[in-house]
Amino acid sequence: MKRIAIIITLFTLLVSCIDEVDLGIGSNDTTRKILIVEATLTNELKTHRVVLSRMDTLTDLGIDSIYNPYVPIRDINRDLVPYERNATVSIVDGSGTIYGFNETSPGIYESSTEFAADPSNTYALNIATTDGSTYSSKAMKIEGISTIADVYAAKTTNASGIEGIGIFLNNSRVEGNVKNLRYTYEETYKIIAPNWTQKDFKLTNYDPCALPVPTYDLEIVDRVNEQQTCYGYASSNTIIQTQNTNTNSSGINNFMVHFVAKDNYILTHRYSIEVTQSVAGSESYGFYEQLNNFSQSGNIFSQVQPGFLEGNLSLDDGSQGTVIGFFDVVSVSKKRLFLNYTDLYEGQPLPPYPFNCAVKTAPESHESYCYSGPSGPNPCPQSIIEQVNLDLISYVGPNSDTEQCFGPHLFVPKICGDCTLLGSNIVPDFWEE
Fold first, then answer.
1. CA distance 312 to 315
2. What is the mean pLDDT of residues 150-170?
3. In the structure, what pLDDT confidence band is assigned to residue 63 with cuts at 50, 70 and 90?
């Protein structure tokens, strides 16, 4: 179970997945007023995004990241980050052209038009918040251009001695200063529910409190939606940087961007990763390196007070310690790789499904919730109709066994028969078999 005791907004946006972080800065009004800015402008022709929030301490969120087959799936799409609403955001280039941004969802600001950063121009970010404060960044520009020449996978062992697959790359310098490089990635992988069947339960007219026994209609019907094959997604959540220290070299070679353990189920059927390379400036590299050092230390941010982690943004009135973040202007290069587990581990067992998919049975019905007479202990598991009502199980087939607590149907935890609990049933546009 991953329990986050205290989350700071900056780590939610830039690092994430930090456990038990004691910031030591409390939740006073000064701290809560710090503006957090996430903004990167690239040389891609697209709609660009700026994310604004306020620093906060969110105590004991208690979100469990482990699937529990006995508990209904919870909707945790809640606004846990104090996003900054109704700000005015713009980027202005060195020639005076202003690119406006619109708030498309709380704290998310997107450019009203598509545009791309020009290597020959400079860009600055301007922000005005509803409390009357205005912020601006230093003028930034693209320092160099480099392309990813190749992304490849190879068997390797990580620093902890775990066998797996490393994702490596080679790049080449095109122009300018390409010393500082930062990487992110997005993984996509095929998921096949191991106990999927064409049929599933359908429960209607259920009254668990009816007397003398609950009333209901339980049918075994054809599934309507695709629930056998899905596609899972994951993005990098750490800071990955390197430097090309050899000025005579045209690029870097055999740099490992990511490692996937051999027994990770995301490799089982088909796996894809898109790697994005950003050519950063020295200021940007230093900011993220400092942030990365905090994330790897024993006291992440425990000594970070407002103003300690300085970016390139400031309040226009000169006040210190009021904003954290970095407005980056970078060139990017992307490369996608597809692989099958058998490409590297031919003839070896596939990684196992990450959940226990034991087939079970249970009585179809149960005692009325409103029965008030004497009742002895019930040795049987929760009834089928109760579990169907809670959307906990998937149908497997009829049951012919008559052992204690038998029922007419066999079932598995829902996640074993319905892949949509782990991913999307929509095939990605880029997917290749």
1. 11
2. 96
3. very low
Closest CA to 48 of 95, 94, 108: 108
Encoded tokens for 108: 């998310």
In sequence order, the 6+-apart residues with CB closer than 8 A to the CB of 104 are 110
Contact 109, 97 (CB under 8 A): no
Q: What tokens were used for 43? A: 């040389």
Of 408, 396, 359, 403, nearest to 380 by C-alpha is: 403
Taking the alpha carbons of 350, 351, 357, 358 in that order, is the dihedral positive or negative? positive
- 81 Cβ contact list (under 8 Å, min separation 6): 9, 12, 13, 53, 56, 107
CB 167 within 8 A of CB 337: yes
List residues bridging with 135 in a β-sheet: 127, 315
As a whole number, mean pLDDT of residues 234-244 equals 92
Q: What is the mean pLDDT of residues 92-110?
A: 97
**Coil, strand or helix at 53:** strand
Cα distance between residue 315 and residue 151, in whole Å:
41
Rounded distance between C-alpha atoms, residue 408 and residue 392, angstroms: 17
| Greater pLDDT, 371 or 1 | 371
Predicted confidence at residue 295, as pLDDT, reads 62
Q: Whole-angstrom distance between the N-terminal and C-terminal Cα of the chain?
A: 34
CB 299 within 8 A of CB 193: no
Least confident window among 20-34, 126-140, 266-280, 417-431: 20-34
User: Buried b vs exposed e over 37-57: b needs ≥16 C-beta within 10 Å?
Assistant: bbbbbbbbeeebbbbbbbbbb
Question: Longest Cα pair distance anywhere in the chain, in angstroms?
Answer: 87
Nearest in space to 13 (alpha carbons), one of 381, 324, 338, 348: 324
Out of 71-85, 175-189, 375-389, pick the least confident: 71-85
How far is C-alpha 402 from the chain's CA centre? 45
Its pTM stands at 0.84
> Residue with structure tokens 């490369």?
335
Which is more confidently placed, 397 or 300?
397
